[in-house]
Write a structure and sequence with these properties.
Elements (H helix, E strand, L loop, with lengths): L3 E9 L2 E7 L4 E6 L5 H13 L2 H7 L1 H4 L2 H9 L10 E7 L8 E2 L8 E10 L4 H8 L11 E7 L14 E5 L6 H15 L2 H28 L16 H4 L3 E2 L2 E2 L5 H13 L10 E5 L7 H12 L5 E6 L2 H7 L4 E5 L2 E6 L5 H9 L5 H5 L3 E5 L2 H15 L8 E5 L5 H11 L2 E5 L6 H6 L10 E4 L9 H8 L1 H8 L15 H7 L1 H12 L7 H10 L2
Parallel strand pairs: 3-12, 3-13, 8-11, 11-12, 15-16, 15-17, 17-18
Antiparallel strand pairs: 1-2, 1-4, 4-6, 5-6, 6-7, 9-10, 13-14
Helix pairs in contact: 9-10, 10-11, 14-20, 14-21, 18-20
């Protein structure tokens, strides 16, 4: 099996320098918009494809790092200082001397491929004239684009060392992209000898149709004739399509097209024609939640190819294994890796209810709470205590459920995310809030609960510091207990109607609410 072990980029799009090792089976690129997910897929596709035309279609001005270009233009603009763009892929052992050598960024013996965009030596005079102009003018047009193996051999799209397929769901209705997809999948299912034979048969059938069916019509025409196109733009591979239930792919809805294309690409072919690398750009596009889950299951069952998925969907990341994830941030060039996450925590997230892992890992400061009531009130309590807002202070509040705290703290430990846990002491602070978290101590993690075991849950704590408000709002709602003469108490009412109580407090008394002391401590700590 062929796979990419590492990528290195210099001056490529958002990255002045970027390097990361890849998993041989699955790599999930997760992040917000403009985080660099698509940049990684684009770099992989360009290097594997070996197509100068594709590079030129994108344009060097769109591939070069803008900061590097701007720095050059603001400097002395000497030709020897012009930046170079490099994208290289290190490959596993290929048993191919054409790939093995030191022609790479680090100058080490390795297998791999490289895209280099650099000033053309033959055009040095012209470049000097451009740089001498008073107006800032970067000489993109005078750069050469070349593809080279680590052994120093040139290669093109006609000599591919790794079989790959790129699926971009945002281009689902693009006719050219669809034809390229069908062509690539066809080539991965049918060996070259068979393809040549089929191509010849198809052309002969066209000629036969012309001779047998069109000839009578042409005999009646004096100066012109009808014919059938048989050139390179109209052959078997260009005429092929994929159908489901006899309905062509392009006549399917967008969501179904996405699903069919991805599922078809994931299917195993013959060993000699297997895809080596599959690149999926936002496969969740146009899919319902149900089909998304089906697709995730299909991807998890896939074998015999290396898969790269760029997405900002938390479901894909957690269901497919957080340890295979590269979290990309729009504010940092370095990905966040969770390869050392405990296996049981990774498995927990594959089974846990839908969560917002993406929000968690992308946030500099996190407050974790364990219930709906806390989540509903915590932002208002924060405003009342700090005279600010969580958004202004880059604090994100996430409700995770009490049993999940340690799972999230496993991630905080690896990524050094400042995380405050606000939880109930459940009647035993020592056991539940101190002893239970002995493995989760550090400057970036802290657990906050009420010091008094009698204040065992959030509602009791809120009642203790907001007694008058709770009496005013809830005393009229007390009713007799079933089969008893006594009335329910305000604490009982609040515990039996947690979400409703939280909503009413927020709706009617938001600005007057006082935060329990342990929650105010959490707010102070998270902003230290």
């Amino acid at each position: 099996m062929k796979f990419i072990t590492e990528i290195k980029l210099i001056n490529f799009k958002k990255y002045q320098y970027f390097s990361v090792a890849f998993d041989p089976e699955l790599n999930l690129l997760i992040g917000d918009n403009e985080a660099g997910k698509s940049t990684i897929l684009t770099a992989i596709e360009l290097v594997l494809g070996g197509s100068k035309g594709k590079v030129e279609n994108i344009g060097l001005e769109n591939l070069f790092n803008t900061s590097v270009v701007q720095s050059f233009l603001e400097g002395d603009k000497k030709i020897e200082n012009l930046p170079v763009l490099i994208a290289e892929l290190h490959l596993n052992e290929q048993d191919n001397l054409s790939l093995y050598g030191r022609n790479n960024i680090d100058g080490i013996q390795s297998n791999g491929l490289q895209l280099i965009c650099e000033p053309s030596e033959d055009l040095s005079h012209e470049i000097s004239q451009v740089l001498a102009q008073p107006r800032a003018n970067f000489p993109f047009e005078y750069y050469s684009v070349r593809f080279s193996t680590f052994a120093g051999e040139a290669y093109t799209g006609y000599r591919r060392f790794v079989k790959y397929l790129m699926l971009d769901s945002s281009q689902i209705n693009n006719e050219y992209a669809t034809k390229e997809y069908i062509k690539t999948v066809y080539e991965s299912r049918v060996d070259q000898t068979q393809r040549i034979g089929l191509q010849n048969d198809y052309r002969q059938q066209k000629c036969q149709f012309k001779e047998e069916r069109l000839q009578p019509i042409n005999d009646a025409i004096e100066n012109y004739q009808f014919s059938i196109r048989t050139d390179s733009k109209s052959n078997l591979e260009t005429d092929l399509t994929i159908t489901e239930d006899n309905i062509p792919l392009h006549n399917k809805g967008k969501g179904r097209q996405c699903f069919i294309k991805t599922e078809f690409a994931l299917e195993r072919g013959t060993p000699n024609q297997e895809l080596d690398v599959l690149l999926l750009e936002e496969p969740e596009n146009h899919l319902s939640h149900t089909n998304m889950k089906k697709l995730v299951n299909r991807i998890s069952e896939s074998e015999a190819k290396q898969i790269f998925i760029a997405t900002h969907n938390s479901l894909i990341s957690t269901r497919l294994d957080l340890r295979k994830t590269l979290f990309m941030s729009s504010t940092s060039p370095d990905p966040l890796l969770l390869r050392d996450l405990p296996e049981d925590t990774a498995k927990f997230f594959t089974k846990a209810p839908d969560n917002n892992i993406l929000e968690f890992v992308m946030s500099p400061k996190i407050i974790l709470v364990e219930g709906d009531a806390e989540y509903m009130l915590i932002e208002q309590l924060y405003k009342n205590v700090t005279s600010s807002t969580p958004d202004k202070d880059d604090v994100h509040i996430i409700s995770v459920g009490g049993t999940s705290f340690k799972r999230y703290l496993d991630i905080s430990k690896l990524l050094n995310i400042r995380t405050a846990v606000i939880r109930d002491n459940d009647g035993d602070k020592q056991t539940n809030c101190i002893d239970a978290f002995t493995d989760y101590t550090g400057d970036n993690m802290a657990v906050f609960c009420d010091d008094d075991d009698a204040n065992w849950t959030f509602e009791i704590c809120m009642l203790g510091v907001n007694t008058d408000i709770c009496n005013e709002l809830f005393s009229k709602k007390l009713r007799k207990k079933p089969n008893k003469d006594e009335m329910t108490t305000i604490p009982e009412y609040m515990l039996n109607n947690k979400a409703e109580v939280a909503y009413e407090l927020l709706d009617k008394k938001s600005d007057e609410l006082v935060a329990p002391e342990y929650i105010a401590r959490a707010f102070a700590w998270i902003n230290e």
